[in-house]
Design a protein that fits this description.
The chain has 75 residues and is mainly alpha-helical. The chain contains 2 helices and 2 strands, in the order E-H-H-E.
């Protein structure tokens, strides 16, 4: 039997869904602000905020609490 360490085991499904959706929201803000910034330069702040938010969301997913639970690949 082979078991794997997984950070997704034992975490609330709603919390996981939110954590997985946040980067997509920030990337939409980031890319759409590129287009708006070409028309109105004041939107450059949204490009910065979108990029920073995407970076932070990635960091949260990378550094999430490692609870050490394992799952069996045969389950």
């Amino acid at each position: 039997m082979e078991s794997h360490l997984s950070l997704a085991v034992g975490i609330n499904k709603i919390f996981k869904a939110i954590i997985m959706a946040i980067p997509f929201g920030f990337i939409i803000i980031d890319i759409s602000s590129w287009w708006v910034t070409s028309i109105y330069p004041g939107f450059a702040w949204f490009t910065i905020i979108g990029g920073f938010g995407y970076m932070m969301a990635f960091a949260v997913m990378w550094i999430m609490p490692r609870n050490g639970k394992t799952y069996d690949s045969n389950e």
